[in-house]
Design brief:
Blueprint lengths: L5 H6 L2 H6 L3 E9 L6 H15 L3 H7 E5 L3 E8 L1 H8 L6 E4 L5 E3 L16 H14 L7 E6 L40 E6 L2 H7 L17 H10 L3 E5 L6 E4 L7 E6 L1 E3 L9 E3 L1 H14 L3 E4 L1 E3 L9 H11 L3 E5 L18 E6 L3 E4 L2 E3 L4 E2 L14 E5 L24 H4 L3 E5 L5 H10 L4 E5 L17 E4 L1 H13 L4 E4 L3 E4 L27 E4 L3 E4 L18 E4 L2 H18 L5 H10 L21 H4 L6 H4 L4 E2 L4 H9 L27 E6 L2 E10 L5 E8 L4 E6 L3 E3 L5 E10 L3 H7 L3 E9 L4 E10 L1
The structure holds 2-acetamido-2-deoxy-beta-D-glucopyranose (9 copies).
The site of one 2-acetamido-2-deoxy-beta-D-glucopyranose (NAG) has 6 residues, from α19.
Length: about 775
């Protein structure tokens, strides 16, 4: 059988091949046949290794992981030649190299801390959706696994007071290690494990100054995402600076959490600069999580570049999860607003974009001329009530710093203490981290600092808890402040202390950083799938870290604010957990479909979703729209897909061996016909007809009619024009015919670009809506 070999691509890159003599490769065989005991599987993996290695000992020493539960494969240290030999074997689906900094957690490097309210975005829905939580019994029977960088188990968000016994189906463990023993698991945190072999093979032994050799979180990210999914309701919590006061809660407050720590610090780099997660470690975690019995997986990890399915540890692991009906939610990535930057594009994954919530942390700048400029921060420290001299960073740099675009960015060591002391310094975004710029101003003795957005950030303010009095302003406002500085001899300013303001502006709106479609791995699958809150999100934090993650920031906080698709992913995982509780028999595809077809398209002002700069957003940013868990509980119809459907999908990519018992047809179907809740037709030449099948999960007798909003320049016909369901579980198919109105005007507009439209099935109660994206050949 034909198979895909990523390896051949790698081997043609002489540079890579020569400097990476012996690397970790993952040799992937698909599903297990289910006829072997665990030790026999490992023996088999050894024998494959032995077939390319000189000795038995060498074979044993080279094996990092043998994946034994559902994923059949192993990770081993191989030369390119050995890897190539293994990839020739018939039973091998793919062989791919592990890359050291390919995967990372997807925050935008923003950190701060405020007091507690309900986790944003859930707040409104909880009022309307108390019913949903009750129906789902707050998710108490549902187990959510998180692949992340650990957990701070002492956080009140993870207390298990009043929780019932651990579900009997649970087979996981509480793995002990540094500062983590079995007492740190409880009826809320029911499992914890950590995975280091891939990391340590590359970087050497973990430096325990920087992280715990255990499931404990020394960063904050893992604690944040875990509490967003399933943190308990923690009332009356106030925070450093006292911005907010209220109840903190995860989306499924009684769901059980299982922590799989797979991401670690990068040696020689500050935690602010990111982290790394190795494919072989993630595969081991996913293999365990599936066997442990998780129901939902939340994975806020991705790549900077889109990754082919056969080369993608997350896609492969998630595929095996799908066989057990485990719902997998992943972050879309933070590489927007550039198009085609999505990670986690496999059709069995819910790919989540990020959007804003309707809460601001208002801290304006008052200029010497009396003009007030809007700003936001969650920095607790305050300036005195007086005016301070104001300078632009580029005007107060040390002589060695060249006077170019980066001079105004407050990079480490760039500012002159003589010139900056006692002043408010305006720094621009660009290179470096936001909190790092504050640290530089503080080092130079500045009194305060204004962080100005670059044009790419526009008006999207990501708030931070800076190490000195500060606020952040839009790119337009940064230019206004610069003009003011230029216009006067003695520019002055002050920053008014921040306060929390609700319902300030239309929300949600799409975050500029949220990665965008089209999906370059399979343009026939529209991605992302959905959007959820990811800008300035409050959740629990690790006390082993500081709110900025800066090593010399002594502050310790219990709750913190972060931004990223890392934050939106656990929101959707929580919603999936609630749906799983209400509909335990639904497939993972049905749950995804329910979330997607009921998603919202309007902001709080009743207008179509925009990005944070006010430009109209489209399905390549938000997928089907903003998630609405309450509506998703009763979607009426779902676009279902079985494990076999996914195997058939893989056939179209020449991946024919993923399941031993499954035979690909000679001519695999087009992935355009994959029963997805959305539709993308790239390069349409003339007319295209695709098929979809709906399953009735609503009332027994229901009649649905289609409503179509065709992409402009195209006509869309749905057939049949009525779907008459007589019982629950009944399936009905229909076709969508899209025709390009092939005139010059349309060609000119859409050549290469996409037009967007919608088709909706409506029975008078349920709105089952799908986005469509079409481009011309
Ligand atoms: C471990 O990390 C700390 C802090 O970054 C550093 O000072 C120390 O030298 C590192 N130790 C080793 C053995 O690399
Ligand atoms: C929280 O504060 C409210 C109002 O101050 C009070 O009524 C309530 O008892 C407090 N709850 C807890 C758990 O402290
Ligand atoms: C400015 O100069 C520095 C030092 O030569 C260089 O690293 C940086 O890339 C330059 N920035 C721009 C925007 O040209
Ligand atoms: C400020 O003035 C300097 C020199 O006069 C000029 O180069 C710069 O472009 C001005 N900046 C703005 C924002 O007007
Ligand atoms: C759900 O699945 C369980 C176990 O497979 C089965 O016993 C039950 O009848 C199913 N319920 C429905 C409503 O299909
Ligand atoms: C699959 O294999 C066939 C025959 O070997 C080849 O023609 C086709 O291009 C391959 N398709 C993909 C998506 O790799
Ligand atoms: C579109 O289809 C027509 C007829 O099948 C064909 O002649 C033409 O080359 C196609 N155009 C493109 C751009 O593929
Ligand atoms: C081309 O098609 C578009 C969309 O259907 C239509 O609005 C426009 O009037 C047409 N132009 C011409 C020249 O036919
Ligand atoms: C739907 O099906 C029922 C039962 O088969 C039939 O009585 C009814 O007329 C149908 N309605 C429509 C609109 O086709």
């Amino acid at each position: 059988m034909k198979k895909v070999s990523i390896l051949s691509l790698i081997l043609f890159l002489p540079l890579l091949a020569s400097c990476v003599e012996k690397q970790v490769y993952i040799v992937y065989f698909g599903e297990h046949r289910g006829d072997k005991a665990l030790h026999e599987i490992e023996d088999t993996h050894h024998s494959y290794l032995f077939s390319v290695k000189k000795s038995e000992e060498e074979a044993r020493a080279s094996l990092l992981y043998s994946y034994k539960h559902s994923i059949n494969g192993f990770a081993a240290v191989l030369s390119p030649d050995e890897a190539s030999k293994l990839s020739e074997l018939d039973e091998v689906v793919s062989v791919f190299q592990s890359h050291p900094r390919k995967y990372s957690l997807q925050t935008t490097r923003s950190w701060e801390f405020v007091g507690l309210e309900e986790v944003e975005g859930h707040q409104k829905q909880r009022r309307k959706g108390g019913d949903l939580l009750l129906k789902a019994r707050y998710g108490r029977e549902v187990i959510v696994g998180l692949l992340d960088n650990g957990v701070w188990p002492e956080s009140k968000s993870f207390n298990d007071q009043g929780m019932g016994p651990i579900p009997k189906s649970w087979k996981g463990v509480c793995q002990t290690g540094t500062a983590f023993d079995s007492s740190h698991c409880n009826r809320k945190l029911i499992g914890a494990r950590y995975y280091l072999k891939g990391y340590e093979h590359f970087y050497g032994t973990l430096n325990t100054t920087n992280d715990y050799r255990s499931p404990r979180d020394k960063d904050g990210h893992g604690t944040h995402t875990a509490s967003t999914v399933g943190g308990r309701r923690v009332p009356n919590t106030s925070a450093l600076g006292g911005f907010a006061y209220g109840t903190a809660s995860g989306g499924a407050p009684l769901a059980r959490l299982a922590i799989y720590k797979v991401c670690w610090p990068i040696p020689g780099h500050s935690k602010v600069d990111g982290n790394t997660c190795f494919a072989e470690d993630m595969l081991a975690a996913l293999d365990d999580a599936i066997a442990d019995g998780v129901h939902v997986l939340s994975i806020s990890i991705g790549t900077k570049e889109p990754t082919p399915l056969t080369d993608d540890g997350i896609a492969i692991g998630a595929f095996h999860a799908t066989k057990r009906n485990i719902v997998v939610a992943c972050s879309a990535g933070n590489n927007g607003p550039t198009p085609s930057t999505l990670s986690n594009t496999a059709p069995w994954i819910i790919t989540v974009g990020a959007s804003s919530v309707d809460r601001d942390f208002v801290a304006p700048v008052v200029l010497g001329n009396g003009i007030k400029v809007e700003g936001q921060t969650i920095t607790p420290s305050k300036l005195e009530k007086k005016m301070y001299p104001l300078v632009y960073a580029a005007d107060v740099v040390v002589p060695e710093v060249p006077k170019n675009g980066t001079a105004g960015q407050c990079l480490p060591g760039s500012l002159s203490p003589e010139k900056a002391k006692g002043k408010i310094v305006l720094c621009l975004r660009g290179d470096g981290t936001r909190v790092g710029k504050g640290k530089e101003v503080k080092r130079a003795g500045g009194a305060g600092f204004i962080l100005g957005n670059s044009p790419a950030n526009g008006g999207e303010i990501t708030v931070d808890a800076h190490v000195l009095p500060a606020t952040a302003v839009s790119s337009d406002d940064a230019i206004r402040i610069l003009n003011y500085i230029n216009s006067t001899k003695n520019p002055m300013a002050t920053i008014i202390p921040a306060r929390t303001v609700l319902h300030t502006r239309p929300a949600p709106s799409m975050a500029m950083f949220s990665s965008r479609g089209p999906n370059v791995i399979d343009p026939n699958i529209l991605k992302p799938d959905i959007t959820a809150p990811g800008l300035n999100i409050l959740a629990a934090w690790s006390e082993g870290s500081s709110p900025t993650k800066l090593e010399d920031d002594p502050r310790v906080v219990k709750y913190n604010i972060l931004s990223g698709t890392s934050m939106s992913c656990p929101h959707v995982a929580a919603a999936a957990a609630l749906l799983k509780a209400i509909h335990p028999n639904w497939s993972s595809a049905a749950i995804r479909s329910a979330l997607m077809t009921t998603a919202g398209l309007q902001n709080s002002k009743g207008f179509p979703l925009t990005d944070t700069t006010g430009n109209l957003a489209n399905p390549f940013q938000y997928g089907s729209g903003h998630f609405q868990p309450t509506k998703a509980a009763d979607p009426g119809l779902v676009y279902d897909a079985s494990y076999d459907d996914y195997l058939l999908y893989l056939c179209s990519f020449n991946i024919t061996d993923a399941e031993p018992s499954f035979k690909c047809p000679k001519v695999p179907p087009s992935t355009l016909d994959f029963n997805y809740p959305s539709l993308a037709i790239p390069k349409l030449n003339g007319t295209m007809t695709v098929k979809r099948t709906l399953t009735n999960v609503g009332g027994s007798k229901s009649i649905y009619f289609p409503i179509v909003k065709p992409p402009s320049g195209f006509s869309v016909k749905i057939s049949p024009s009525v779907l008459n369901f007589s019982h629950v579980g009944q399936k009905k198919s229909f076709t969508i015919t899209v025709k390009a109105q092939n005139n010059k005007t349309v060609r000119k507009i859409y050549k290469g670009g996409y037009a967007f439209g919608w088709y909706t099935w409506f029975d008078g109660i349920h709105v089952v809506r799908s986005p469509m994206a079409v481009s011309l050949a």
